[in-house]
């Protein structure tokens, strides 16, 4: 007879193998076959009854895990010098997990009683269940410094790289951390600031060459003035926060809500669930639940956390780091909807009919527990017939109903016709050393579109509720294109042999018709880029001017309060509208909505510029090893001083300077967006296919300079030569200009 494992052995197995927790997996692990499976089933039921396990579909799991980012209290080192810690966020009824702290060489010394914020990994060892890596010690928030290290006779000094940095910092010999002269370093304040002399610092990380890829995002952060250091009061306030319970909330913990995010996501602020509507009045309809982290419960109006979040406006994302709007204690822990962990949320239940039209919705303030943290790729693979151990048990009862609801929403989207641009998003992949490993275009899966449609629907519901209840809010506004930009788009379309409807109120379906005409042709990228450039920039406003791009009358941001302050304002509006507590929108905030809207619209643009500059620098560093190589691309912009080219391979933008085009003079036509050679008649216009040679790449500035080799697969004529030759090409250029003017006059007459 096979030996039946003990209850503890089963719990240890489930803890060590969270993706292999079905009864079949457990039986296979312990070699249990035949009638012995009956005994195994009995033990599993006992563990479930005792609260040690929770059955989820066809698998078992610990009902309450520790969150991936957790607060721990350090214990005394044991006889082997190992440092263990007690989890301060354990809610389970079973044995408290044992956590081993694994300090890095650069970590500060930890002592018994220290409280730390740490990132946890589940392990299966004899003496511990989790391993922890220090994020920071709670109660300490040293000032960070970024600068160039200059070596001295004893230690050295740090020279700030930004203009705002007024003081240099002294570094003692023992605090150099191996830094070399001229390296970019990150340091922190060492000891209190004295009244006399330069302040002191200790180097905590060497970032190497200031022009190297790893330093790029830090430079952008400082150049654009993005706050990346939380004040001590903000950290102290976040550290005092505790997990919220069920009091005053609807219990949603039995609902199989899941999060679907990028594979490298560290925080999860939205979860979803859907099922067929059992209302006989709504045949073929669906019910969609979207649950969002209840950040408003932790970030109260007027608090230090609130002031700092408003100041930042939003989180900023770089290829190698995130500058969060909220401290780790909230963004990565208490406000993140981690798998298997009870979390406070604000949820909306939405009813849609079989055609995807929303026919009703209601908001609740609840307590949820995500059954799975999934990524887009594994969700899509599961739906496509290739589930893994984690998605397999969820396919029938969770994933397929989600996709069924999404298909209905897709039908409604097709009728509404929001702007349908086809502009692939670049993804820069870095290796462990911070160098660009590859530049690719992100796949756009149905899993991405599903989450996007669910979030849009929830945002609409939030806006409609606050309008109906007459509570002020911040709308997400996107106005239609300005007439002059629309006219420029129409001219570009005509030059490409396409048409854009005129003489009627512009709607997104008119632009989509143009995009559809261009699809599959050589002009597709040009028309998509030109359409994007014609668009106004979205912004926040207490007045509702609609969202042109999404073809929606009422729209507000509700679904990402961890990373956007606008969403936090909407959450507070919903709390006020429903009378859910004292953490709702205040009279003072309502009075300042105009100012808040302008500020967070500005911080959003600041982040976009910093992210774009960082991407440009990474691409320049990536391409710097390929100077002299030839690339294909397309003219993406025209200026008096040259033509901009977007490369096919990486999407990188660079300049072909006019000075590199020969000795002739080039006429710049701002309206037509062209450069024309005075001698050769060479016409350079947006959208033309080109071959270029990379002449220069500057990782420090992010600049790329190209030499133009061919235009529309034809070699370039060069200005200069004999006097007779110059007269000939002048006559050719004059004829070309006369012909172009004639075409312009003809088009103008048609318009009249």
From TrEMBL:
It is an enzyme of class 3 (hydrolase). It comes from Ruegeria marina. It comes from the Bacteria. GO terms for biological process: mRNA catabolic process. GO terms for cellular component: cytosol. Residues 628-714 form the S1 motif domain. It catalyses: Exonucleolytic cleavage in the 3'- to 5'-direction to yield nucleoside 5'-phosphates. It holds the Pfam family CSD2. Its EC number is 3.1.13.1. Residues 717-752 are annotated as: Disordered. Gene3D superfamilies: Nucleic acid-binding proteins. Belongs to the RNR ribonuclease family. RNase R subfamily. It is found in: Cytoplasm. GO terms for molecular function: exoribonuclease II activity; RNA binding. The gene is rnr. Keywords: Cytoplasm, Exonuclease, Hydrolase, Nuclease, RNA-binding. Residues 724-752 have a biased composition (Basic residues). 3'-5' exoribonuclease that releases 5'-nucleoside monophosphates and is involved in maturation of structured RNAs. Its main location: cytoplasm. This is Ribonuclease R. NCBIfam families: 3_prime_RNase (TIGR00358), RNase_R (TIGR02063). InterPro entries: CSD2, NA-bd_OB-fold, RNase_II/R, RNase_II/R_CS, RNase_II/RNase_R, RNase_R, RNR_Ribonuclease, S1_domain.
